[in-house]
Specification:
Layout lengths: L1 H15 L4 H8 L1 H4 L13 H4 L4 H10 L14 H13 L17 H11 L1 H4 L30 H6 L2 H10 L15 H11 L19 E6 L3 H14 L3 E2 L3 E2 L14 E7 L1 H10 L9 E8 L2 E7 L1 H6 L4 H22 L1
Antiparallel strand pairs: 1-6, 2-4, 3-4, 4-5, 5-6
Helix pairs in contact: 2-6, 5-6, 7-11, 10-11, 12-15
Length: 342
């Protein structure tokens, strides 16, 4: 019996072992934050940033993500797995994270609003979306900014950050994001007023009919027509919407030899040159993702019409005007796709 117990213990040991935080980080986080938190698509997890946020904040950020931004939620991870990732990230500096009180600060949102508008709007935007008018140095933020300003109205941020943590960051600033310290500009009580006002900020209202696409990287619709008819339908709908269509390309063109290219996957590229000129004047970086395109692919007996989620893509440029254009373009592209598949 004694030997049987030992055998069961050995067999169950792998199941009882703590999750491997390094492996979990590499599988789920490194693609955006890089192998040691250097950052890239995602926020750089520098010693400065990690010294300002609690383990609870990191765990909740992993759990809730940032809806509508780049950071997804990882709800499929168990609490033990999330904790293992946090522990691994902390191991880089070997220092424990700060611990903040969870109680709400005693501030007045009405007094905080003018303070926010005077000190924070330029970077975080009037609505707290992180899409302010910019500093005037280059496009929408200073050239030295490594990251986009935080979306303070984001549901994921609001759920993850404690009042005390926000207060501390406002007080000390954040070099990696270009955020100045307000220690000499605002009193502790004034910062508490600002925090109270931040809690009133709400994410943008999702327009009726767009809910199903919110937070998704692409719009996908199944066509009831055959492949060739669907391609022609898309072109006709684009022409009717006053777009100019570029020569059609296969998705695999240039990636495989001409005899191996899948001819049932095409990319229909299109543009309105007047609007293009206007958009590039708003932000030249937009040229990296233009022209717009709608892909038509045939797979497993289905014909699918696919386009990038332009409303979500536009938010990545940290430019309020461009985000508003993205919302309008979303409606146009979805209308084109719906017309082609009706």
């Amino acid at each position: 019996m004694k030997h049987l117990n030992w055998l069961l213990l050995l067999l169950c040991a792998p199941l009882l072992a703590a999750p491997d935080g390094k492996a979990l980080y590499e599988d789920n986080c490194s693609v955006c934050h890089h192998s040691r938190g250097e950052g890239g698509i995602g926020l750089p997890l520098t010693d400065e940033i990690l010294s300002q946020v609690s383990d609870d904040y990191i765990a909740k950020t992993i759990r809730h993500g940032r809806p509508g931004r780049i950071m997804p939620s990882f709800e499929a991870l168990s609490p033990a797995q999330v904790k293992a990732i946090v522990r691994y990230v902390r191991s880089w500096s070997g220092k424990p994270g700060p611990v903040f009180k969870t109680a709400k600060l005693k501030g007045d949102a009405k007094l905080g609003k003018p303070l926010y508008e005077k000190n924070c709007v330029r970077c975080h935007g009037k609505d707290g979306s992180g899409e302010g008018p910019g500093t005037g140095v280059t496009m929408s933020r200073e050239r030295t900014f490594m990251v986009m300003p935080a979306a303070l109205n984001n549901r994921g941020f609001q759920q993850s950050a404690s009042d005390a943590m926000i207060h501390d960051i406002i007080l000390s600033g954040r070099k990696v994001g270009g955020m100045p310290s307000f220690k000499s500009k605002l009193s502790d009580q004034e910062i508490s007023h600002v925090v109270a006002y931040l809690r009133t900020l709400k994410p943008p209202v999702i327009r009726q009919g767009m809910e199903e696409w919110r937070g998704k990287p692409a719009y996908i619709m199944e066509s009831p027509y055959d492949f060739d008819t669907t391609v022609e339908n898309v072109k006709q709908a684009l022409t009717g919407a006053n777009f100019r269509i570029f020569p059609q390309r296969y998705l695999e063109q240039g990636l495989a030899d001409e005899f191996s290219v899948n001819t049932r996957q095409v990319s229909i590229r299109f543009c309105n040159f007047k609007e293009l000129y206007h958009l590039l004047n708003i932000d030249p970086r937009l040229g990296t993702v233009l022209p717009c395109r709608i892909n038509v692919i045939e797979r497993d007996g289905k014909v699918l019409v696919i386009s990038a989620n332009v409303a979500q893509l536009a938010t990545l440029f940290n430019n309020q005007e461009l985000s508003e254009v993205g919302v309008l373009m979303e409606e146009v592209i979805l209308a084109v796709m719906e017309e082609a598949t009706l």
